[in-house]
Amino acid sequence: MIGDVKIMDIDPQITERISHKIEEKGGFVEKERILSKLKLLVSDFGIPAEEAERTVTNEFLREQNLSSTGRQNQDVSKIADANPGDWVTVEGKIVSISNPPSPSIAQAGIIADDSGAVRFVVWSKADCPAFEIGKRYRIESATIDEFRGSPSMKIHSGTKVTETEEEIPLMPKPEFISDLKPGVATVRVKIIQNWEPRHERMFQTGVLGDETGTAKFVTWKDDSNVKLEEGRVYNIYYAGVDEYQGKISLNLTGTDIIEEEGASIEVSGGNATLSGSFINMGPGSGLIKRCPVEGCNRVLNRQNFCPVHEVQSKFRYDLRITGVIDDGTKATNVLIQRDETEKITGITLEKAIEIAENNPLGMDDVFMRMQDVILGRYLQCRGNDLEGTFLVKSCQPQSFDSQKHTQLINRAHEQEEVDL
Fold first, then answer.
1. All domains of the chain, ordered by start, with CATH?
2. By the number of CB atoms within 10 A of the CB, which of 149, 166, 316, 332 ranks highest?
3. Using CB atoms within 10 A of its CB, is residue 161 exposed (0-12), middle (13-18) or buried (19+)?
4. What is the pLDDT of residues 337-375, one digit of tens each?
């Protein structure tokens, strides 16, 4: 059952009304075809029966070149004005096409006009001609719903799609990170930090920001991937904006990206502070090997194996620390990159490589030496607090604080009592 309407519960009078309207205009459609269309819209797409009636009526009237007395979807709507629950007719330009996430979807992407942009999905059963990037289309009788908090346009079997030659001027204005909401947006940002991709389909992920704040970004693999470099400024057109647990993230897959050479942005944020005792050094810390394939940067295992590009003999070395800092109230995961790792441990990348190559324990020796230096040490860090992990930009040792130390001991005793 969909929308509390069972497939066989469609009122026979709906079929009769549609048939009568078509005959009044001088046409004829078999009632079995009418009922089949109604069932498709109601059962497959969850469209309310009254909306399905209007859609099927207009579709058969168009099919037989008969005029319709209704005005549904005849007036062109601005994309920025479309809200979940609306039936719309829009005219726009296809600015992005992405890989369909499901066999039930023929195409997915972004369409834009001079007011804004919206994500769209074409159902496989819609029998719609394939959209092409850069071309302009008139889309009639599409539905707007909500997916992960942002509007999404659905193109179904009752939607009419026509390619148009009409020129649509598109001049998207960048939005500030602090003003973003779920949907589609154009931004001017600086790449703050690239992270190691955690999925084989992921091309790049990290943190970007502007004068008003920072956000996580991700790019999934497709034929148009562009590697974004740390410290550089980019104009990114029509990025997908998602929200999860109150935090905004950007999907850059399929976007148009233009670098502003020589430009700089004073990024707001990255000034969160974290002070406490370093209580745990996690695996993957110390001297690590990274995949040298452009756009990958994944950490290799002990056999120099990359989960995407397999064995890599020409790896490159790097330093980092993953671990936990406890401030006496809560424990926070931290990630410290090479520059700060060298500063707080006193071990440079060159020194770490020398240790690994000249000691029986190899890279494990580097891990243990760093652990001896940092474990239990009080640190004050600045950086970005994102999704439960504190990304350290700078880190300074602190003097011993007996009060904080006492708080940590008390917490440990309380946890032991809970465990018992």
1. 7-63 (no CATH), 79-164 (2.40.50.140), 177-259 (2.40.50.140), 272-413 (2.40.50)
2. 332
3. middle
4. 899 999 999 999 999 999 999 999 999 999 999 999 999
